[in-house]
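Lab manual, section 2.4: Encoding a predicted structure.

Procedure: take the sequence of the chain (148 residues), apply the prediction step described in section 2.3, and record the output as structure tokens. A sample record is shown.
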Amino acid sequence: MKLKTKLRNFLIFLTLTSFTLVAHAQGTGVVKVEQGSTVPFAGWCLTEPAMAKIIADKEQEEQRCQLRLGEQKEKLEAKFNLEIGDLKLRVDSLEKELKDTIAIKDQEIEKLEKIALDNPNNYWYLFTAGGFIIGVGTTVGIVYILGL
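Recorded output:
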């Protein structure tokens, strides 16, 4: 994002500068100035190597931007691939932990079932007799309290 903003600002500046120079030139636009000659306007005089550098910089700006973007893209891809790898590893470890927990739970259930089947509850007659005695006792107690 920062690179896009800088590139946009550079292009705006370059466009505005181009329009300004054309407006001031008022003529053919480009005048080669020989050494010792005078010009009828104030402006910048650049040597041919300086002008060539400006043109080359302008032409190579997009390539530099693409290189920076590619570098940032590779860094972000590496970062996100690392994060994805970490998350996958975390998911795998949690799945293994869950499987181990379920296996332990199943073993405990089997042990409890075996214990319950090995020791059946054959005291049903005691529970029946206890329920009968409590029921008769409660009925007699209510009749006694109410005085019927």
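Check your result against the sample. Residues 21-28 have pLDDT under 50 and may be disordered.
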